[in-house]
């Protein structure tokens, strides 16, 4: 633990002078960044007590706790919570604006960033476009490199502070003495664009590539780093704009990067497209991860699922960072992701880093092509939305997968892979195209039979067909199952999701205020305002948790219901919701045909009479 007196002074400097509150989480994050090491609950409580005893602050009760300046009323709340910001004093006396997120995590990153921050990121992208880089993936890749360079400098600075405070030598130096000029804080001050361009292109990027020998996922993925910014003027402008973006707070860093990821508006060439963040959040909440899980996403892309799981654990299991054993597992053993696109791996690794995971296992692997004997029965949780690009050649597919399921369909091969990767008792929430649910080939039927008879298939959530627009309009579903090897399916829970909170066209505009989006909205949906009809996610999550109780009693006409295993087996293991859903047809009473004909004759007589009157007027 660093010197308490130093941290007391640091904490006093953090207290907002305008009467607004700094929460316990904000205090902990700021002090841990300053100290370069975790701060326990007991130490945090002691620090707050000393600050209160000195009269520099008063405690705040309620959710989040925290401190505020004594005797000063808090400022009035902004009308639009998502655009609000809180001002606090930093250690050097400046007053940077820190966004105050009141939006449910997992809706969209745009919803939790202030308009000012979004404008800053937009200006960076505009600079790239006007500077000659129009490919959004290349823009994000170059931004990833620059963020990594900045992060290395921040880590070096933290270690220097720890060393000075403890009066001990530095435990690890990232930048040797002869490479100090390669640090972000040094080259950004060079002043001459040509000099900065030369240092970054000729020395910093080669330095990044040499970091590959370090035991770090990030350093490994930087081995192929290519510097493609075309001009010194563009580099100077981007560095200046990026340096002005506040990256001290973990939540802000993660949201900024998620906002950048949202700009990848084109699908990849291998069927890649981003899973909407609120759908990921729903799947994570339905599987209820624990701090001791070992999760894998065999087609991780930008690491949306590992990131969301990490945020879930921070919120629901805060001990994951206070317990030394759990913290070690969180940073080094909990998260695993594979992909065969090196660019995506770099972006995904940076996404994890900016969300506070020190060293996840994000590695290169063609999941369907390689025999993964070392990965079998290794994981307790699979969360995935793999690319379903159609068919593969047998020669490029893992021999073991082929022996289990004889098919070229990638969706069936991935489902087989999920079952191989899971330990007995491991669970999964994965997205599949609707064809998996009712396909008539032998491979389709055998896979469904295996899920129902040999393992524990718990739920099928039918997603709206527009949920992946503008990337694709394919109809999909979420499958939730547990690997047992001994069966266990008794009932299968079905849910018919018709709305996810966003318009189902290419624009994907929010249908509700941002506070009411996502599976766990900050504000409850209005019962009499038909808000459930615009966002089914909270209802889906609530009903899922009752799948073994009240859901068993629901009629087949409801939005969710349960079907016994015997009935599913009798239907050839068809898992499409419409196979079991019952539709209510309202009885309509029709008038007798002779009565209708008589009325038509009367109308015809009136028309003829009108024509005769009109003719008489014209004579």
Written overview of the protein:
By secondary structure, the chain is of the alpha/beta class. Helices cover 42% and strands 11% of the residues. The chain is built from 23 helices and 13 strands.
Which key phrases capture this entry?
alpha/beta, two-stranded antiparallel ribbon, single chain, 23 helices, globular, 619 residues, nine-stranded mixed sheet
Bulk shape? globular
Q: Spans of 5+ residues with little confidence (pLDDT < 50)?
A: 77-110, 265-271
* Strand percent estimate: 5-15%
Query: What structural class do you assign from the helix and strand content?
Result: alpha/beta
Share of helix among residues?
40-55%
What would the average pLDDT be, to the nearest integer? 81
User: Could you tell me the radius of gyration in angstroms?
Assistant: 29 Å
Side by side, the strands of the main sheet go 7-6-5-8-9-11-10-12-13
Tell me the quaternary state: single chain
Give the N-terminus to C-terminus distance in angstroms: 110 Å
Please give the structural blueprint.
Blueprint: H1 4-14, H2 24-35, H3 41-53, E1 58-59, E2 67-68, E3 85-87, E4 97-99, H4 109-112, H5 115-130, H6 136-166, H7 184-187, H8 193-210, H9 217-221, H10 232-243, H11 250-261, H12 277-287, E5 295-297, H13 304-316, H14 319-322, H15 324-332, E6 335-339, H16 342-354, E7 361-364, E8 379-384, H17 399-404, H18 410-421, E9 422-433, H19 435-438, H20 442-454, E10 456-462, E11 476-482, E12 491-496, H21 537-544, E13 560-564, H22 565-570, H23 593-618
Parallel strand pairs: 5-6, 5-8, 6-7, 8-9, 10-12
Antiparallel strand pairs: 1-2, 3-4, 9-11, 10-11, 12-13
Helix pairs in contact: 1-2, 1-3, 5-10, 6-16, 8-10, 12-13, 12-21
